[in-house]
Amino acid sequence: MITTVVTAPISGQKPGTSGLRKKTRVFMGRHYLENFVQSVFDVVDAAGKTFVLGGDGRYFNDRAAQVILRMAAANGASRVIVGQGALLSTPAASHLIRLNKTDGGLILSASHNPGGPDEDFGIKFNMPNGGPAPEAVTEAIFRRTMEIAEYRILEAEDVDLSRPGRSRLGGMQVDVVDPVADYAALMESLFDFAAIRALFASGFRMRMDSMCAVTGPYAKEILENRLGAAPGTVANAVPLPDFGGMHPDPNPTWAHALMAEMSGPDAPDFGAASDGDGDRNMVVGRGIYVSPSDSLAVLAANAHLAPGYRAGLKGVARSMPTSAAADRVAESLGIAQYETPTGWKFFGNLLDAGRATLCGEESFGTGSDHVREKDGLWAVLLWLNILAVRRESVAQILAAHFARFGRNYYSRHDFEAIDSARAEALFAALRAALPGLKGRSFAGLTVEAADDFAYSDPVDGSVSEGQGIRILFGKGARAVFRLSGTGTEGATLRLYLERYAAGPEGLDEDPQQALAPVIRAAHEIADIAGHTGRSAPDVVT
Ligand code: VG1
Ligand code: CO
Predict the structure, then answer these.
(1) What are the Alpha-D-phosphohexomutase alpha/beta/alpha domain coordinates in residue numbering (predicted)?
(2) 2-177 has which CATH code?
(3) Residue 355: which residues within 8 A CB-CB, separation 6 or more?
């Protein structure tokens, strides 16, 4: 029986950088999830459609999945493909959407944000191309949440999601699928598994930290079962509703156990970590951290060593705050380079149009045209493929890369949980100061240009404004200021810092040291301490 429930708009259901993210208890509140899901189904017209559904396994994932299934049935969807246990990593969901030519999918995740009843939950709609809904669609969904008056839901028992199989829910077909199988097959089609197997067989050791999040089952199957990495290579391999109380964010601060192991006396050759929903990656060599911007550049320069990219790359795209290291590679390869706003949704058009093959963000996101999301394990496997062919250490590969292209010293400083009004005031003052900054000097650096980044999509012509304040000091030095669009409390100021060293001297400095003048200049220009009361960041990557 289909019930039509009377509801009323709930304020604040506006998707941010990557879907709608709120405190879990907010999502569990009366009509909250239902209002948003109905708004999605209204905007995309769910009748007769097929969707993919799954999430990162965090607290409320299983309940939310059952509600969405019953609402999909009540809205006339013809079929939902759902991961066993309601689990799907974000890249695996993107792949299933594409593989099955569905009309899109719903992904339940707050990504790298902690999970649990007192932490965060999230939901995101992806399009038939497998990628996050573009701004026009998320805006339409948001508008719908502000006028919603009722939602439809089927009265029914829970669907058994504990094993693969086909069942019916009202008039809708439900296919429960193994979350790993199709994804693993895709990876096998892109990379030289035989070469990577031989690498592991030669004694190469790796640590993969899945951080009690969704990549555990994927990493175990691919790295240990198919590639022959030693049993136990994957740590924290069982997805838990609260991620074991950890913060599933693969950066040096939150993946500290991995960092400690990689700099310890018995460090493996290669280390990696992934986030809550499996779209981020951090890679670490023995005693050496690879910054995400450098990782993108190294992958672009070496991708041809993997079978899936042997024909070469069409182009490389990076988000604006990501360092220009990848640009130098694109230039030397003679391929196009694109600079987009933060958030994977901006890469979709470039990938669909065949203009870019690799994409990346400084926030530990790397991916390619094999799906329409960033993909943590994909990046780990491409690194492994490169290591298997070159048979050099991560440190050697990085050193050779810097010697050839120069080094873009890079760091991001996050100032978290700032009072929102104070953060707004900082940006208002910074924007007001922009026209007068050119030619002025701060901490010995002279501003060559300063603007508020706006992006014109070269494929559909859409324009996105207000995407981050850029202060360019010339010679590849710059500071970028943005406010996070994924947080659920207060504001997070992100300060992105970059400085280029052409070499051959000065390629081996500590990044914080190398960036010290840029850091000082950025603090002076924005008066971070004056506005926020903070002089030091909470997280440095
Ligand atoms: C952050 C990152 C951004 C990334 C986004 C989603 O957004 O900076 O690069 O695309 O998270 O990643 P923001 O607005 O907080 O800076 V995930 O793995 O959280 O889906
Ligand atoms: Co993520």
Answers:
(1) 13-151, 182-284, 293-405
(2) 3.40.120.10
(3) 314, 315, 317, 336, 338, 458, 459
Burial 236-258 (b: 16+ CB within 10 A, else e): bbebbbbbeebbbbbbbebbeeb
Q: In the chain, how long is the greatest CA-to-CA distance?
A: 73
Question: Are 125 and 140 contacting, i.e. CB atoms less than 8 angstroms apart?
Answer: no
Q: What is the pLDDT of residue 16?
A: 85
Q: What are phi and psi of 123, to 5 degrees?
A: -145, 145
Please name which of 431, 535, 408, 536 lies closest in space to residue 483, comparing C-alpha atoms: 431
Task: Show me where the domains of the chain are located.
Answer: 2-177, 183-405, 407-540
H helices, E strands: number in the chain: 18, 28
The number of CA neighbours under 13 Å toward the Cβ of 231 is 0
CA distances from residue 462 to 70, 346, 481 in whole angstroms, order as listed: 35, 10, 23
Pocket test for ligand 1, best of 363, 413, 415, 492 (most atoms within 8 A of CB): 363
Which residue out of 18, 22, 89, 119 has the highest number of ligand 1 atoms within 8 Å of its CB and is therefore the one to mutate?
Answer: 18
In the predicted model, residues of the chain with pLDDT beneath 50 are none
pTM of the model: 0.94
ipTM higher than threshold 0.95: yes
| Token couple for 450 | 């300063």
Instruction: Give domain 407-540's CATH number out of 3.40.50.2300, 3.40.50.1240, 3.30.420.40, 3.30.310.50.
Output: 3.30.310.50
